[in-house]
Amino acid sequence: MAGTLKCMDAEISHFLEAAVSGVVVNVASVCGEVAYCSPPFLYGVSKAAVISATRQAALSYAPHGIRVAALDPGAVNTTLLRGGRSPTDPVWLATRRSLEAMIPQSRISEPWEMAGPITFLASDTGHGQLRDGRDRHGGRGFRAERPGREARRGG
């Protein structure tokens, strides 16, 4: 969480000092919204904090043309999810099959698959997809305009 806050501070400070609009996209997790993710316990807590910080920053900096959003992916094939095991470790492969059986699409995402949604959320196209803190594509954030005002274009 500390790293996310430091990055947001640097990014938003840059946008404000340069008097330009901009976009910040944080990566949270579905574990920040549900209680069934385990272990580690603090992972879900920290991702919930990322979601909350994203919401607060989105509302605070929208008047400056700065959009802040977060991607909340489900299971992603990372070293943390694998418990430090190699992608070919038999224990991990058995665990993976169990996890995939619980996922509607029966698959765990790969890290590279996050690039597309992050790029989308950072784009002008992604700007119009955010509504009341939840978009249609797994991300979270708020529109850069307030009700009754013209939309502000973020860069």
TrEMBL record:
Residue ranges, compositional bias (Basic and acidic residues): 129-155
Region of interest called Disordered, as start-end residue ranges on this chain: 123-155
Species of the source: Prorocentrum cordatum
Entry-linked Gene3D superfamilies: NAD(P)-binding Rossmann-like Domain
InterPro entries noted in UniProt: NAD(P)-bd_dom_sf, SDR_fam
Coiled-coil regions listed: none
Sequence similarity: Belongs to the short-chain dehydrogenases/reductases (SDR) family.
SUPFAM superfamilies assigned to the protein according to its UniProt record, in alphabetical order: NAD(P)-binding Rossmann-fold domains
Name of the protein this chain belongs to: Uncharacterized protein
